[in-house]
Design brief:
Protein name: 2878_t:CDS:1
Strand content: 5-15%
Shape: globular
CATH class of the domain at 203-342: Alpha Beta
Number of strands: 10
Number of helices: 16
CATH architecture of the domain at 203-342: Alpha-Beta Horseshoe
Structural class: alpha/beta
Largest sheet: 8 strands, parallel
Distance between the termini: 46 Å
InterPro entries: LRR_dom_sf
CATH superfamily of the domain at 203-342: Ribonuclease Inhibitor
Organism: Funneliformis caledonium
CATH topology of the domain at 203-342: Leucine-rich repeat, LRR (right-handed beta-alpha superhelix)
Length: 342
C-alpha cells in the first residue's frame, strides 16, 4: 500500500510541495511517513538546500555536507589547512549528490555561520573553505541544473567570494547550468566575461540589472550592460529571457536578443522604463516567440511598438502589458491580438 505511487509520480508530488511550501514543513512530514517515502522525498528536499535552509539551520548544512565527504576529500581539506574530523558516522544519504540548484548567496551565508556561533563574519578557515568546497562539488558526479547569483552588498566586499565561482577548477560545476538568476554587483570587471565563457548552455535567464548612484540618479553602468549583452549572445539556445530594471543601454542589449531570435520562446520585462529605447525591432525578429510580457513598465509608445505591429509571429500565444503605461495604439493592437487568439 505504501508503494501505491511509483517513485516518479511520488517525486513529482514532492516537488510540487517543495515549491509551494516555503518552510518545507509538509515535505519534512513526508520524510517521516515510511522508508519508501523517505527515499523519494530526501532527494527533492536536498535539491536546493541553500535556498530554504539558510535561516533555519545555516551551520547545520555545512556540518552535514562535511559528514558526506569521502576520506580523500577530507585529506585534501586537511592539506589546505582546514580542520575536519577524519572519522565521522556516514549519513544515511549522500546529500551532496542531490544538489541540483545552487543558491550561491545561501552557500556563502552558511559558511559565514559555520564555526562562528551564528555570527555573520568570516572565520579563519572561510577564505580557503569556500573554494575548496566548490572544487569538491565540481568533482562530484552530479549535474547542476540552476544557479542563483545574488548579493546585497554593492561595495565590492563580496568580489573574492564570487570570483571563486569562475575559477577554472570549478568550470565543470557551472558549465551544464540551464537556468540562471543573476542579481549581483561584482565590481571585478572580469567576473561577468568569465561567467559568460563558462556558462553557455543556459535556457532560462533572469537578469536583474543593478544600478549605481550618480548625479543623474541611479543608472546601470555601461560596462555591465555590455557584459550582460555578451552573456545573452553567447548562449547556445536561450529559450526564456527575463530582464528586470531595464532603463538604459537598449542599443547594447537588444542586438544580443536578436542573436537568439530562433530559440527564444518567452521574453519578459519587469519594472522597466523604455524612455531611451528607440524601437522594439529586436523582438519582432523572434520568429518562435510564444509569450511576450511587459510588467510594470513605463513609456511604451506606438512608435516603439511599430515593428511589433507589423511583425509576423505565428507562434505567439500570449501578450501581456500588466500595470504598464502604454499608448492607445498599443491597446488597440493588444485587443486585436486577444480577439484573433480566441
Amino acid at each position: 500500500m505504501t508503494e501505491l505511487f511509483s517513485p516518479e509520480i511520488l517525486s513529482e508530488i514532492f516537488e510540487f510541495l517543495y515549491v509551494s511550501d516555503h518552510h518545507q514543513s509538509n515535505l519534512f512530514n513526508c520524510v517521516l511517513v515510511n522508508r519508501y517515502w523517505c527515499r523519494t522525498a530526501i532527494p527533492v528536499l536536498w535539491s536546493d538546500p541553500f535556498r530554504f535552509f539558510v535561516y533555519e539551520m545555516p551551520d547545520g548544512l555545512i556540518t552535514i555536507y562535511i559528514a558526506c565527504l569521502t576520506k580523500r576529500e577530507r585529506r585534501n581539506l586537511k592539506k589546505q589547512g582546514i580542520e575536519v574530523p577524519m572519522k565521522v558516522k556516514s549519513p544515511s544519504f549522500d546529500y551532496i549528490s542531490f544538489l541540483k540548484n545552487l543558491n550561491y548567496y545561501g552557500l556563502i551565508s552558511s559558511l559565514f555561520h559555520f564555526g562562528s556561533n551564528g555570527i555573520y563574519k568570516k572565520n579563519d578557515s572561510f577564505g580557503i573553505m569556500l573554494p575548496a568546497l566548490l572544487e569538491i562539488l565540481a568533482n562530484r558526479d552530479f549535474i547542476l541544473q540552476s544557479l542563483e547569483l545574488e548579493n546585497y552588498d554593492r561595495r565590492g566586499d563580496w568580489d573574492n567570494e564570487y570570483m571563486h565561482l569562475v575559477n577554472p577548477n570549478v568550470h565543470s560545476l557551472v558549465k551544464p547550468v540551464k537556468k540562471m538568476y543573476l542579481d549581483c554587483k561584482v565590481l571585478n570587471a572580469k567576473f561577468l566575461p568569465l561567467l559568460s565563457g563558462q556558462c553557455q548552455s543556459i535556457r532560462h535567464l533572469h537578469i536583474y540589472l543593478q544600478f549605481q548612484n550618480s548625479k543623474k540618479g541611479s543608472i546601470i553602468c555601461e560596462r555591465d550592460a555590455t557584459d550582460y549583452a555578451d552573456l545573452i549572445e553567447r548562449q547556445e539556445s536561450l529559450e526564456v529571457l527575463i530582464i528586470t530594471n531595464f532603463v538604459r543601454y537598449f542599443k547594447k542589449i537588444f542586438p544580443s536578443i536578436k542573436k537568439q531570435a530562433k530559440s527564444l520562446r518567452v521574453i519578459e520585462f519587469i519594472n522597466s522604463d523604455f524612455k531611451e529605447c528607440e524601437s522594439l525591432e529586436g523582438l519582432a525578429n523572434c520568429e518562435n516567440l510564444q509569450s511576450l510580457i511587459f510588467r510594470k513598465c513605463d513609456n511604451l509608445t506606438d512608435e516603439k511598438f511599430r515593428a511589433l505591429f507589423n511583425a509576423k509571429l505565428p507562434k505567439l500565444q500570449e501578450v501581456s502589458l500588466e500595470h504598464s503605461k502604454k499608448d492607445e495604439g498599443i491597446e488597440i493592437w493588444l485587443q486585436s491580438f486577444i480577439q484573433e487568439s480566441n
